[in-house]
Amino acid sequence: MNRRSFAQSAGSAVILSTIPASSLFAQDSNALKAGEVMAIAAHPGDGMFTMGAVLAKQIERGGAGVLLSLSLGEKGAPKNISVQQYGAMQRTATENAAHLIGAEAVFLDYPDAEIPFNDESSLRVSDALRKHRPEAVVTHWSGSWHKDHQNCHLIVRDAIFYAGLETLTRERPAHAVSKVFYAENWEDAANFLPNTYIDIDSVYEKWMQACDFYPMWQGQTGFFRYNDYYSSLSVMRGCLTGSRHAVALMSDINQRTQRLHSL
Q: What CATH number is given to the structural domain containing 125?
Protein backbone atom coordinates (compact mmCIF):
# COMPACT_ATOMS: atom_id res chain seq x y z
CA MET A 1 0.00 0.00 0.00
CA ASN A 2 1.44 3.39 -0.99
CA ARG A 3 1.18 6.60 1.03
CA ARG A 4 -1.77 7.95 -0.91
CA SER A 5 -3.89 4.83 -0.58
CA PHE A 6 -2.96 4.54 3.10
CA ALA A 7 -4.04 8.13 3.81
CA GLN A 8 -7.31 7.70 1.92
CA SER A 9 -8.12 4.39 3.56
CA ALA A 10 -7.26 5.78 7.01
CA GLY A 11 -9.45 8.82 6.46
CA SER A 12 -12.32 6.70 5.20
CA ALA A 13 -11.97 4.29 8.08
CA VAL A 14 -12.21 7.13 10.56
CA ILE A 15 -15.39 8.41 8.99
CA LEU A 16 -17.08 5.05 8.62
CA SER A 17 -16.06 3.64 11.99
CA THR A 18 -17.17 6.62 14.03
CA ILE A 19 -20.11 7.81 11.98
CA PRO A 20 -22.69 5.12 11.19
CA ALA A 21 -24.70 5.63 7.98
CA SER A 22 -27.83 6.45 9.96
CA SER A 23 -26.22 9.09 12.15
CA LEU A 24 -26.46 12.85 12.00
CA PHE A 25 -23.07 13.40 10.39
CA ALA A 26 -23.13 10.63 7.81
CA GLN A 27 -20.61 10.35 4.99
CA ASP A 28 -23.48 9.85 2.53
CA SER A 29 -25.42 13.11 2.37
CA ASN A 30 -28.59 11.20 1.49
CA ALA A 31 -28.42 9.42 4.85
CA LEU A 32 -28.12 12.63 6.87
CA LYS A 33 -30.97 13.28 9.24
CA ALA A 34 -32.49 16.71 8.76
CA GLY A 35 -32.27 17.52 12.46
CA GLU A 36 -31.00 20.56 14.28
CA VAL A 37 -27.44 21.15 15.40
CA MET A 38 -26.67 23.61 18.18
CA ALA A 39 -23.18 25.07 18.40
CA ILE A 40 -22.46 26.42 21.89
CA ALA A 41 -19.41 28.63 22.25
CA ALA A 42 -17.93 30.89 24.88
CA HIS A 43 -17.44 33.66 22.32
CA PRO A 44 -19.11 34.30 18.94
CA GLY A 45 -15.89 34.04 16.93
CA ASP A 46 -15.10 30.65 18.43
CA GLY A 47 -18.51 29.43 17.40
CA MET A 48 -18.38 30.58 13.79
CA PHE A 49 -14.69 29.80 13.14
CA THR A 50 -14.72 26.28 14.60
CA MET A 51 -18.38 25.22 14.39
CA GLY A 52 -19.88 27.40 11.66
CA ALA A 53 -19.01 25.04 8.81
CA VAL A 54 -20.78 22.19 10.63
CA LEU A 55 -23.91 24.33 10.96
CA ALA A 56 -23.70 25.41 7.32
CA LYS A 57 -23.37 21.80 6.15
CA GLN A 58 -26.32 20.62 8.22
CA ILE A 59 -28.47 23.50 6.97
CA GLU A 60 -27.50 22.77 3.36
CA ARG A 61 -28.72 19.21 3.84
CA GLY A 62 -32.14 20.34 4.98
CA GLY A 63 -31.53 20.57 8.71
CA ALA A 64 -31.32 23.56 11.01
CA GLY A 65 -28.58 25.24 13.00
CA VAL A 66 -28.35 27.48 16.05
CA LEU A 67 -25.26 29.29 17.31
CA LEU A 68 -25.47 30.02 21.03
CA SER A 69 -22.81 32.44 22.33
CA LEU A 70 -22.39 32.70 26.09
CA SER A 71 -20.72 36.11 25.81
CA LEU A 72 -19.90 38.64 23.09
CA GLY A 73 -16.13 38.25 23.40
CA GLU A 74 -15.99 41.99 23.96
CA LYS A 75 -12.77 42.07 25.97
CA GLY A 76 -10.80 41.06 22.89
CA ALA A 77 -11.18 44.64 21.74
CA PRO A 78 -8.11 46.37 20.25
CA LYS A 79 -6.84 49.49 22.01
CA ASN A 80 -8.59 51.92 19.65
CA ILE A 81 -12.07 50.45 20.21
CA SER A 82 -13.99 50.44 23.49
CA VAL A 83 -15.10 47.17 25.03
CA GLN A 84 -18.76 48.17 24.63
CA GLN A 85 -18.34 49.11 20.98
CA TYR A 86 -16.45 45.93 20.21
CA GLY A 87 -19.17 43.85 21.86
CA ALA A 88 -21.76 45.50 19.61
CA MET A 89 -19.55 44.78 16.60
CA GLN A 90 -19.28 41.14 17.63
CA ARG A 91 -23.05 40.82 17.97
CA THR A 92 -23.66 42.39 14.57
CA ALA A 93 -21.01 40.22 12.96
CA THR A 94 -22.59 37.09 14.44
CA GLU A 95 -26.08 38.03 13.34
CA ASN A 96 -24.84 38.71 9.80
CA ALA A 97 -22.74 35.54 9.69
CA ALA A 98 -25.56 33.36 11.01
CA HIS A 99 -27.98 34.86 8.51
CA LEU A 100 -25.58 34.13 5.65
CA ILE A 101 -25.33 30.42 6.47
CA GLY A 102 -29.01 30.17 7.39
CA ALA A 103 -28.56 29.68 11.14
CA GLU A 104 -30.11 31.38 14.14
CA ALA A 105 -27.92 33.43 16.46
CA VAL A 106 -28.72 33.34 20.18
CA PHE A 107 -26.82 35.22 22.90
CA LEU A 108 -26.50 34.98 26.64
CA ASP A 109 -25.27 38.00 28.56
CA TYR A 110 -22.26 36.81 30.52
CA PRO A 111 -19.25 39.16 30.57
CA ASP A 112 -16.32 38.05 28.47
CA ALA A 113 -13.56 36.44 30.55
CA GLU A 114 -16.04 36.03 33.43
CA ILE A 115 -18.32 33.23 32.23
CA PRO A 116 -19.26 31.33 35.40
CA PHE A 117 -19.61 27.60 35.74
CA ASN A 118 -22.47 27.05 38.14
CA ASP A 119 -26.04 25.73 38.21
CA GLU A 120 -27.45 29.05 37.07
CA SER A 121 -25.42 29.13 33.84
CA SER A 122 -25.96 25.42 33.20
CA LEU A 123 -29.72 25.76 33.64
CA ARG A 124 -29.84 28.72 31.25
CA VAL A 125 -28.11 26.67 28.57
CA SER A 126 -30.35 23.74 29.46
CA ASP A 127 -33.37 25.95 28.84
CA ALA A 128 -31.98 26.83 25.40
CA LEU A 129 -31.56 23.12 24.64
CA ARG A 130 -35.15 22.45 25.69
CA LYS A 131 -36.37 25.32 23.53
CA HIS A 132 -34.47 24.46 20.33
CA ARG A 133 -34.38 20.66 20.84
CA PRO A 134 -31.23 19.92 18.82
CA GLU A 135 -30.29 16.37 17.97
CA ALA A 136 -26.58 17.16 18.23
CA VAL A 137 -24.49 19.69 20.12
CA VAL A 138 -21.03 20.93 19.14
CA THR A 139 -19.00 22.80 21.75
CA HIS A 140 -15.55 23.38 23.24
CA TRP A 141 -13.22 20.55 24.16
CA SER A 142 -12.01 20.62 27.77
CA GLY A 143 -8.31 20.72 26.93
CA SER A 144 -8.09 24.49 26.78
CA TRP A 145 -5.88 27.12 28.36
CA HIS A 146 -8.80 29.58 28.16
CA LYS A 147 -10.92 29.85 31.31
CA ASP A 148 -14.10 30.71 29.41
CA HIS A 149 -13.66 27.72 27.10
CA GLN A 150 -13.10 25.37 30.02
CA ASN A 151 -16.20 26.66 31.76
CA CYS A 152 -18.26 26.46 28.58
CA HIS A 153 -17.32 22.79 28.24
CA LEU A 154 -18.47 22.11 31.81
CA ILE A 155 -21.63 24.21 31.45
CA VAL A 156 -22.68 22.29 28.34
CA ARG A 157 -21.97 18.96 30.02
CA ASP A 158 -24.32 19.78 32.90
CA ALA A 159 -26.84 21.55 30.66
CA ILE A 160 -27.28 18.41 28.56
CA PHE A 161 -27.86 16.43 31.76
CA TYR A 162 -30.43 18.94 33.04
CA ALA A 163 -32.16 19.22 29.66
CA GLY A 164 -32.83 15.50 29.56
CA LEU A 165 -33.91 15.15 33.18
CA GLU A 166 -37.66 14.44 33.08
CA THR A 167 -38.09 15.15 36.78
CA LEU A 168 -36.53 18.62 36.55
CA THR A 169 -39.42 21.04 36.05
CA ARG A 170 -38.64 24.00 33.83
CA GLU A 171 -40.68 26.18 31.46
CA ARG A 172 -40.33 23.64 28.63
CA PRO A 173 -40.40 19.83 28.63
CA ALA A 174 -37.24 17.76 28.83
CA HIS A 175 -35.17 17.06 25.73
CA ALA A 176 -32.42 14.46 25.32
CA VAL A 177 -29.48 15.43 23.10
CA SER A 178 -28.47 12.41 21.00
CA LYS A 179 -24.88 13.32 20.15
CA VAL A 180 -22.14 15.58 21.48
CA PHE A 181 -19.06 16.65 19.52
CA TYR A 182 -16.11 18.88 20.33
CA ALA A 183 -14.75 21.36 17.83
CA GLU A 184 -11.13 21.74 16.78
CA ASN A 185 -9.95 25.04 18.23
CA TRP A 186 -6.35 26.23 18.40
CA GLU A 187 -6.99 27.33 22.00
CA ASP A 188 -8.43 23.94 23.00
CA ALA A 189 -5.77 21.66 21.54
CA ALA A 190 -4.54 19.72 24.60
CA ASN A 191 -5.39 16.02 24.12
CA PHE A 192 -7.81 16.79 21.30
CA LEU A 193 -8.15 13.57 19.29
CA PRO A 194 -10.32 14.02 16.21
CA ASN A 195 -12.28 11.01 15.03
CA THR A 196 -15.12 12.53 13.02
CA TYR A 197 -14.51 14.25 9.67
CA ILE A 198 -17.04 16.25 7.68
CA ASP A 199 -16.58 17.19 4.03
CA ILE A 200 -17.38 20.92 3.78
CA ASP A 201 -16.46 21.58 0.13
CA SER A 202 -19.97 22.65 -0.78
CA VAL A 203 -20.23 25.23 2.03
CA TYR A 204 -16.58 26.27 2.34
CA GLU A 205 -16.86 29.61 0.51
CA LYS A 206 -20.03 30.57 2.38
CA TRP A 207 -18.39 29.70 5.69
CA MET A 208 -15.34 31.81 4.81
CA GLN A 209 -17.59 34.76 3.91
CA ALA A 210 -19.45 34.36 7.20
CA CYS A 211 -16.21 34.38 9.18
CA ASP A 212 -15.10 37.51 7.36
CA PHE A 213 -17.83 39.53 9.08
CA TYR A 214 -15.78 39.37 12.28
CA PRO A 215 -13.31 42.20 12.90
CA MET A 216 -10.61 39.78 14.08
CA TRP A 217 -10.88 37.22 11.26
CA GLN A 218 -8.03 38.56 9.15
CA GLY A 219 -5.87 39.60 12.07
CA GLN A 220 -7.29 43.12 12.23
CA THR A 221 -7.04 43.14 16.00
CA GLY A 222 -3.39 42.12 15.72
CA PHE A 223 -3.73 39.04 17.88
CA PHE A 224 -3.97 36.03 15.59
CA ARG A 225 -4.44 35.26 11.86
CA TYR A 226 -7.61 33.21 12.24
CA ASN A 227 -8.30 33.18 8.50
CA ASP A 228 -4.97 31.61 7.61
CA TYR A 229 -5.15 29.10 10.44
CA TYR A 230 -8.67 27.78 9.90
CA SER A 231 -8.60 27.85 6.10
CA SER A 232 -5.31 25.93 6.15
CA LEU A 233 -6.63 23.54 8.77
CA SER A 234 -9.61 22.73 6.56
CA VAL A 235 -7.26 21.86 3.70
CA MET A 236 -5.17 19.61 5.94
CA ARG A 237 -8.25 17.82 7.28
CA GLY A 238 -9.52 17.50 3.72
CA CYS A 239 -6.36 15.59 2.81
CA LEU A 240 -7.41 12.88 5.28
CA THR A 241 -10.89 12.55 3.82
CA GLY A 242 -10.21 12.80 0.09
CA SER A 243 -11.89 16.19 -0.16
CA ARG A 244 -10.59 19.70 -0.69
CA HIS A 245 -11.89 20.98 2.65
CA ALA A 246 -13.07 19.25 5.80
CA VAL A 247 -13.50 19.90 9.50
CA ALA A 248 -12.56 17.49 12.25
CA LEU A 249 -14.56 16.90 15.41
CA MET A 250 -14.01 14.78 18.47
CA SER A 251 -17.00 12.69 19.53
CA ASP A 252 -17.86 12.41 23.18
CA ILE A 253 -16.17 9.42 24.84
CA ASN A 254 -19.53 8.08 26.05
CA GLN A 255 -20.74 7.86 22.46
CA ARG A 256 -17.64 5.91 21.47
CA THR A 257 -18.13 3.56 24.43
CA GLN A 258 -21.74 2.96 23.44
CA ARG A 259 -20.72 2.08 19.91
CA LEU A 260 -18.11 -0.37 21.15
CA HIS A 261 -20.69 -2.08 23.34
CA SER A 262 -22.97 -2.56 20.35
CA LEU A 263 -20.45 -4.66 18.41
A: 3.40.50.10320
